[in-house]
Design a protein that fits this description.
The chain is an all-beta fold and 211 residues long. The protein has a single domain, classed as Ribonuclease Inhibitor (Leucine-rich repeat, LRR (right-handed beta-alpha superhelix), Alpha-Beta Horseshoe), CATH 3.80.10. Helices cover 0% and strands 22% of the residues. The protein is built from no helices and 15 strands. The strands form three sheets. It has an eight-stranded parallel β-sheet with strand order 1-2-3-5-7-9-11-13, with no helix packed on it. A four-stranded parallel β-sheet has the order 10-12-14-15, with no helix packed on it.
Length: 211
């Protein structure tokens, strides 16, 4: 069995031990994200977007989730903090979407453990604190969306040096200071940085004071 789409979370049993793809998206499950998810040891694709999931996202960051490549838990009611991804356990993750939830706390610096991540979307949550400079170690990152949170501090210079980054959205936060300059900044529109009252510099209007 490779793919399954049903209306409730399947109970872990021998029938699902070889499950590679689990798609329950757009079904009104309205249940907590179960720790049983981490027991699907060969699962590579998990799509639970828009299922009214609640609880914590911790189960997907288990050391047993090393086979996962695609995770979409967007548009749910998940809360709490994002746990630090364990070292050497998320080497296969290329897509992670936790947007439109109720996540709080800060973005862990260990996010850099997602070594081959290409798409990271944490937008439309309640995340606070700064953007960790360790994001600059995600050299495979192509798309980063941190918009509509409560992030503070400056834009890390390391972020704008990522060689593969093609899409960036940091809008609607509380970021401040001068946007780091360089050739890479020209590839991003002003909309990527708007609605951050303390942010200035290309592609936004010039800073009124020296930083």
């Amino acid at each position: 069995m490779n793919t399954i789409k049903v209306r409730q979370l399947p109970t872990l049993s021998s029938s699902f031990s070889g499950l590679y793809h689990l798609n329950l998206s757009f079904n009104p499950l309205a249940v907590p994200l179960s720790s049983d998810i981490s027991k699907y040891s060969v699962l590579t694709r998990l799509d639970l977007r828009s299922t009214r999931l609640s609880g914590s996202v911790s189960p997907i960051f288990s050391s047993n989730s090393s086979f996962l490549e695609f995770v979409d838990l967007s548009d749910n009611q998940l809360g709490g903090q994002i746990p630090p991804p364990p070292s050497r356990t998320q080497d296969s993750w290329s897509y992670l979407n936790l947007s439109k939830n109720k996540l709080t706390g800060s973005i862990p610096k260990e996010i850099a453990n997602l070594k081959v991540i290409k798409t990271l979307d944490l937008s439309h949550n309640q995340l606070q604190g700064g953007i960790p400079a360790s994001v600059g170690n995600l050299t495979s990152l192509e798309s980063l969306d941190l918009s509509s949170n409560k992030l503070t501090g400056g834009v890390p210079e390391s972020l704008l040096k990522l060689p593969s980054l093609r899409f960036l959205n940091l809008s609607s936060n509380s970021l401040s200071g001068k946007i780091p300059q360089g050739p890479k900044i020209r590839s991003f529109p002003a909309a990527a940085f708007t609605d951050n009252p303390g942010l200035c510099g290309t592609p936004l209007p010039p800073c009124k004071k020296v930083f």
